[in-house]
């Protein structure tokens, strides 16, 4: 039974790779996405089978899982169906934010974080936290809720650098010392603040590239969550998206003739973001 | 490092290498759909949230679990549906 489950997960991972590859060309792109979606459906169904077989899930956990997933799935479905073509990039950014948030919550919620998983647990909340708030700010800028022009926070860069150091120190303390969950919480708060500070100074015109970069971050955070849970599908899919997202970010930046470093430095571009969608 | 961690690390490294290679010369019009498609794939985090449910036994854990499930399910369903809509529009325009 365990072998069968591993083989099914492997097949799902293959479908993600094939799906992503087919999305390189216009003629096969839609089929690629469908293959990837089919793999995802199988992966989720297989996990249901695993949970039912193991009988370790409490009733409360089942209720929380089913209610949360049903509400979230419905919200995502409605948002994706109703959204205007021009508003799609900010919706993708919102979906990216919640994906990163979910990855961070996995490390925070995992009560059996062993010493082995401590490093990846810290990386998970740090990367997931940054991408959660960063993507929310990016989505807000594209939607016009936050002004699209570059917003310079006084001493924004030194503050981000200091917060990064604080997060790193807390992370090292967590890994080396006792696995106190308050330390992990501190890393989370610092990461959430850094996400906001990194994205605010970037102009709306550069947002698609930033969203792609944050997408790659989320992939990496999901892979780290896979380490925490020792789950191969998460590690493979997360690593895949992390690397492919990084390449895609480079391609998008090249297409706009804007070096990634210059984009991250911020201070450029107007609020008119609708004009820059690639699709 | 334990053998388990080493095995995970091997898989992760190879997945990264595949990810670097799987994207080649993408036409600029496909950049946004491809980003959205990749975004849907990391919705696999829902599988992780489900695995987390197996070790959750207290009320604060349940609340966290429900929020995580909400986030992950939104990522996965919304991600695939919005990508499909983008690509459907793309094809009909050609």
From TrEMBL, chain A:
Its main location: membrane. The keyword Iron does not apply. Residues 6-279 form the NADP transhydrogenase beta-like domain. It is an enzyme of class 7 (translocase). It comes from the Bacteria. It is a multi-pass membrane protein. Keywords: Cell inner membrane, Cell membrane, Membrane, NAD, NADP, Translocase, Transmembrane, Transmembrane helix. It is found in: Cell inner membrane. The chain crosses the membrane at residues 6-23, 35-52, 58-79, 91-109, 121-143, 155-176, 182-202, 209-228, 234-253. The keyword Nucleotidyltransferase does not apply. GO terms for cellular component: plasma membrane. The transhydrogenation between NADH and NADP is coupled to respiration and ATP hydrolysis and functions as a proton pump across the membrane. Belongs to the PNT beta subunit family. This is NAD(P) transhydrogenase subunit beta. The lineage of its organism: Bacteria, Bacillati, Actinomycetota, Actinomycetes, Micromonosporales. The gene is pntB.
TrEMBL record, chain B:
One of its GO terms (biological process) is NADPH regeneration. Its main location: membrane. Pfam families: PNTB_4TM (PF12769). InterPro entries: NADP_transhyd_a_C. The chain crosses the membrane at residues 34-54, 61-82. The gene is pntA. It is found in: Cell inner membrane. The keyword tRNA-binding does not apply. The transhydrogenation between NADH and NADP is coupled to respiration and ATP hydrolysis and functions as a proton pump across the membrane. Keywords: Cell inner membrane, Cell membrane, Membrane, NAD, NADP, Translocase, Transmembrane, Transmembrane helix. It catalyses: NAD(+) + NADPH + H(+)(in) = NADH + NADP(+) + H(+)(out). It is a multi-pass membrane protein. GO terms for molecular function: NADP binding; proton-translocating NAD(P)+ transhydrogenase activity. Its EC number is 7.1.1.1. GO terms for cellular component: plasma membrane. Residues 9-91 form the NAD(P) transhydrogenase alpha subunit C-terminal domain. This is proton-translocating NAD(P)(+) transhydrogenase. It comes from Paractinoplanes tereljensis.
């Amino acid at each position: 039974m365990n072998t069968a489950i591993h083989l099914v997960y492997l097949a799902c991972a293959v479908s993600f790779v094939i799906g992503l590859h087919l999305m390189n060309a216009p003629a096969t792109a839609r089929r690629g996405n469908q293959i990837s979606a089919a793999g995802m459906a199988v992966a989720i169904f297989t996990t249901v089978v695993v949970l039912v077989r193991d009988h370790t899930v409490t009733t409360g956990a089942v209720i929380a899982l089913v209610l949360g997933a049903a509400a979230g799935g419905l919200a995502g479905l409605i948002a994706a169906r109703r959204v205007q073509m021009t508003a799609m990039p900010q919706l993708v950014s919102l979906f990216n934010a919640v994906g990163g948030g979910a990855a961070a919550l996995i490390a925070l919620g995992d009560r059996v974080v062993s010493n082995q998983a401590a490093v990846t647990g810290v990386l998970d909340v740090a990367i997931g936290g940054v991408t959660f708030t960063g993507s929310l700010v990016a989505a807000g800028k594209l939607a016009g809720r936050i002004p699209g022009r570059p917003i310079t926070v006084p001493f924004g860069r030194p503050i981000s650098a200091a917060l990064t150091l604080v997060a790193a120190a807390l992370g090292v303390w967590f890994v080396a010392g006792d696995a106190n969950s308050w330390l992990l919480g501190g890393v989370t708060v610092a990461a959430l603040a850094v996400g906001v500070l990194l994205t605010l100074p970037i102009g709306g015109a550069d947002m698609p590239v930033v969203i792609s970069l944050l997408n790659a971050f989320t992939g990496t955070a999901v892979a780290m969550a896979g380490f925490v849970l020792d789950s191969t599908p998460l590690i493979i899919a997360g690593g895949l998206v992390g690397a492919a997202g990084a390449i895609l970010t480079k391609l998008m930046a090249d297409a706009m003739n804007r070096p990634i470093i210059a984009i991250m430095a911020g201070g450029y571009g107007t609020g008119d973001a609708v004009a820059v969608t690639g699709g | 490092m334990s053998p388990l961690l080493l095995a995970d690390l091997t898989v992760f490294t190879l997945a990264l290498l595949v990810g670097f290679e799987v994207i080649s010369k993408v036409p600029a019009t496909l950049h946004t759909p491809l980003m959205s498609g990749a975004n849907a794939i990391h919705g696999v985090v829902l599988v992780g949230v489900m695995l987390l449910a197996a070790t959750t036994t207290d009320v604060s854990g349940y609340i966290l679990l429900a929020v995580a499930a909400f986030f992950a399910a939104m990522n996965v369903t919304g991600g695939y549906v919005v990508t499909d809509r983008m690509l459907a529009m793309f094809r009909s325009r050609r």
